[in-house]
Amino acid sequence: MSEDLLLIPGPVTVSKDVLKAQSIQSLSHTHPKFISIFQSVLKNLRVLFKSTNPKDQGIVISGSGTLGWDITGSNLVYPDDDVLVLSTGFFSDKFAKALEVYDANVDILTAPVGGINSLQEVETQLKKKKYSVITITHVDTSTAVTQNLANLSKIIKKVSPESLIVIDGVCSVAVEDIEFTKWGLDYVLTGSQKAIGIPPGLSIGFISERAIEKALKRPKQSTYFASLPLWLPILQNYEAGKPSYFATPSIQLINALKVSLDEILNGGLEERFIKSKRVAQDFKKRLTNELGLQLVSLDNEYSASGLTGVYFPEGINGPDFLNSAYKRGVVFAGGIHTAIQPKYFRVGHMGVSALDDSLGHIEKAFDVIKESLAELGYKKIE
Amino acid sequence: MSEDLLLIPGPVTVSKDVLKAQSIQSLSHTHPKFISIFQSVLKNLRVLFKSTNPKDQGIVISGSGTLGWDITGSNLVYPDDDVLVLSTGFFSDKFAKALEVYDANVDILTAPVGGINSLQEVETQLKKKKYSVITITHVDTSTAVTQNLANLSKIIKKVSPESLIVIDGVCSVAVEDIEFTKWGLDYVLTGSQKAIGIPPGLSIGFISERAIEKALKRPKQSTYFASLPLWLPILQNYEAGKPSYFATPSIQLINALKVSLDEILNGGLEERFIKSKRVAQDFKKRLTNELGLQLVSLDNEYSASGLTGVYFPEGINGPDFLNSAYKRGVVFAGGIHTAIQPKYFRVGHMGVSALDDSLGHIEKAFDVIKESLAELGYKKIE
User: What is this model's ipTM?
Assistant: First the structure.
């Protein structure tokens, strides 16, 4: 199979060592060889999320990022709980829909497309009701807008300290800084195929001691597969180096995750966040300055490090542009935010694509955008 | 990583081509390249399950076999539905527990350990209540007991034709014959790491037109991630060759599944079932006749083609035996049925291990069992 350059906001291009780790022969899920792999993963998640409370817990379950929404709805939200969703796009709204399935009373505070709500707006909303759970989509993959978790958590701790803070980190974990303990977060959920840099197939997360307590005290279970009371002892056992069984874990994906977390942590977390941000900001600036394009995110200050949403210039047809790029060997993603769907495209620049300069992915992305637009007759208006 | 010979009832040793397919670089989940892979998988599931109704549907979702229990409970069982579970072991009972989470009223008809209930017992039970759903664990991985689905479905169709028939096929699909249409089955669920022969990480299934109707008419959704109303249009689109998105599918695992289904179907389904059965029966006979061991399944007639449960002889310590086998390079599985857990072990012989003679896996399994028992002082009593 010939390889195109995949530059969408997930699945992302993964490293060679990850692909190798992904193709080991199967192991027994209760054998010491696999236990030590899974143990390493669970310990390293503590480092990745910067948690200092040993009673917090890393979560790795076969599934996808979406499963994290069900884990939230079926464990952390009790029926009729009031939940506040801070929405910065399509995925924030889908999270709200998932929670409604679990009988949450959801209020959505919706930011303008490409923007965020002001801290004042959030504070005002928080004062209206006692929310049991507040969800924040750290980076909404439909808009490339990054929420400022440090500031938001500060306000939540001030106005509504008992609210659980749940972060959809699908497009942020391992590319944006997350301070689990310092910011007092309760559950961060993500998938495997984004900045964590392995193939899709895992729901990965990190949960706080107090969120665990709420999950364990839940009066009635509403899920089996996504049940934290059933999974937590299993995960705790694996982390302690003991065999344990609930449902068969994804051996190869967890081995790939081990290799990827080793790569991430060996490379230095801070260095990773700084470089990802620099590469992203340079790329965004070139798109706006050199090509005269308009980004979906309204302010570079909060435009995501892991992806960029770009409006098509007047007169450029979306599918034609994506085909033209594909002819040049690069796969970008179309728009997905319902309000602006046909008007923009998305470029993923997470993991090795941003961090390994020798691959030349970002240069290539820029050149292909420029060439494809030129082919379709676009001229920058000076 | 040095490779031991993995002979447990899942995850199973997978073929070289499957491992290769498992390690392709990521693809966009909406790109024609991936769509044609997923399309092939969904079409081939119709052949594997022998379905002739185009309104039935193959299901492939990131997860594990266990997720199929939630798919059942949250889609096909309405709250307060009466459900009958035919139990032949640990996994049948766990399925019952999973359904209770979704507010099913579950009756369990429990067979003796290693045995099955008579058709007369099943018929008597069916006449006691109108069951909306009847679950049958085709092969319970804790006992290696195979239910006769042809006979059971005949009785159900006679006594209670409106009951949905749900088959846990985790340890049977692709190693035991399943006639979805002929037997009038409604949902067969399995995982990827058993006889289908790929790494763990997918919930694979096949669902009937009438089960789909029941899922779509459900008064209230009780799951998001496992929701058939949300997944069905996506799966139907992929099968029709159209891009579609709900949650990111496991690109590499689905590519591995494509390769494995091609291998399975190209090799001939009937030939596969016949050879798997012959290899299994020969193996079981050698264990009982040559080594004087006792199987967990009480009758060879219904002992599974994909695995064997074997009691340790008097005086043999389970962990010592498994360690001794491991020193010889083979990984077997311990017991898991709560009533007899420390008294037996399990040998998986699914997929390439049974079908590719050149690998010599079954010979090796037998020799290692014999040598390990001898090392621990076992002598066959003539």
Answer: 0.97
